[in-house]
Amino acid sequence: MKKIFSLLYVIWALGALFLSVSCDDEEHYTTSPHALLAFSADTVRFDTVFSTIGSSTQLFKVYNPGDESLMISEVQLASDGKSGFRVNLDGVSGTRFTNVEVRDGDSLYAFVEVTVNPRDENNPFLLRDSLLFHLQSGVCQKVLLEAYGQDMIVLRGKCFMQETTLTGDRPYVVYDSLTVDSGVTLRLTEGTRLHFHSGAFLKVHGTLRAEGSIERPILFRGDRLDNLFDYLPYDRLDNQWGGITLTSSSYDNYLNHVDIHSGGWGIVCDSADASLNKLTIENSVIHNVAGDALSAVNGRIWVGNTELTNAGGHCLKLRGGDAQVVYTTLANFYPWAYRGAALCLSNEHTPLTRAEFRSCLLTGYSSNELMLSHDSDTTLAFNYRFETSLLNIPADSLQGDTLPGGRFYQVRIDSVGAPVSRIANFPLIDTDIFYYDFSLDSLSQALDAGGADDARLFYPLDRLGRSRLDDDAPDAGARERGGRH
User: Fold this and answer.
1) Domain 38-149: homologous superfamily in CATH
2) What is the C-alpha to C-alpha distance for residues 222 and 199, in angstroms, rounded to an integer?
3) How far is the C-alpha of 309 from the C-alpha of 261, rounded, in Å?
């Protein structure tokens, strides 16, 4: 019996010792003022956030780099949530958290969001808050929270039934698309910003008059202001919204200093009467769209001093009609999937009475960036002409100076054996982060390939306001290298 009691005593004593050690281990937290937390970011910043629309979620980590456990007595938002910032700490949402344990070598996840309250202000305004970490040692550490808020105007399923002017005072956020009724003109003044929600588009039955400036262009883009990855804003992705459609009843549209990008398409010009002006677009950009950047069926259009770049379809597609394109860059380095050509010309079911390209730059990844589509009806006109331009087409395709239906005058041919090297003509392009700037390299073949007469008559300044008349000859395309502002 004594042996049994002795054995039970030993078991009890060992158990008590184990519990004591366990409790001591669980309950011991250093109070040394030198034991500090580490953070993956000392400031969490949000890009511009529209008022009343919640932001994306930002993440940072809280580390205990020491060899002893830390107890955070309190974690709290300095504003107690009044600033609009919200926090989720390791799966728990709130504005204040108590007795948060971080064992040695361990970490916590902190997720931050913000919703901006309207202030009825035109300019962006800065919001600040702090997430405070009070340790048992009495030390307080903090992570700063910052966001720029922007009041905006919501347009939801809007149909303009009478002449309307939108201004650049505040951005517009478009849901469920916009429509301009037949016989109605929608005017956009310089600095107007239209942010379209996913799938939303602009359909014009009447007339669109968008007149921006170099300093304050008119913007058409998606409404995602955040990033997909740290290096990749949603604004550099395609297909973030729909695009612009000029229907068969829409004429006399004028766009100047307009930036259209990241859509499902750029501008679609539906079938028209080629004797009437359908579209004039100058000093503008249509970039990075899933479909065609600019397409027209039997339309009369003028494209000048403009960049049509990176399209999953074609940068410019003309099916019949009458088109003049002057000092324009057509470059297709679309990175996302299959892409069309920089330029597609067709007389399918409708005559191409004129497609004239002067002082243009036609380039891209493909060995031939000019696609020609002949209708089987040989009575339909198929007239096109290139003059004082740089073209990425095979040198032997010219057959002297002509192709069936076309004429080439004083053009330069870039038939580089490795077509991908053509992107080297634009040194500011960074394909790793999908950033495209079509400024010319100092060795580009487009230098001095433009026409002086077109520069003097139509565009003495390039798209960015630099002079084309300062050197021996202007450069082909929408940008002049090194000209004076």
Assistant:
1) Immunoglobulins (2.60.40.10)
2) 9
3) 10
Asked if 473 and 448 touch (Cβ cutoff 8 Å), the reply is: yes
pLDDT tens sequence across 67-124: 999 999 999 999 999 999 999 999 999 999 999 999 999 999 999 999 999 999 999 9
> What is the helix (H) or strand (E) element at residue 409, kind and residue range?
strand 406-409
| SS3 at position 62 | strand
The amino acid at 463: R
CATH number 2.160.20 given to 153-457: yes
Nearest CA to 245 out of 263, 208, 270 is that of: 270
In the block, tokens 């009609």 appear at 321
Distance CA 362, CA 441 (A): 15
State the span(s) of the chain assigned CATH 2.60.40.10.
38-149
Encode pLDDT of 195-208 as tens digits.
999 999 999 999 99
| Backbone angle region of 259, left / alpha / beta, with phi > 0 → left and psi within -120 to 50 → alpha | beta
CA angle in degrees (0–180, nearest 5) for 113-158-286: 75
pLDDT beyond 80 at 485: no
For 191-209, give the DSSP string.
T-EEEEPTT--EEESSEEE
- Identify the CA nearest to 397 among candidates 419, 365, 364, 368: 368
Using CB atoms within 10 Å of the CB of residue 139, give its burial: 0 to 12 exposed, 13 to 18 middle, 19+ buried.
middle
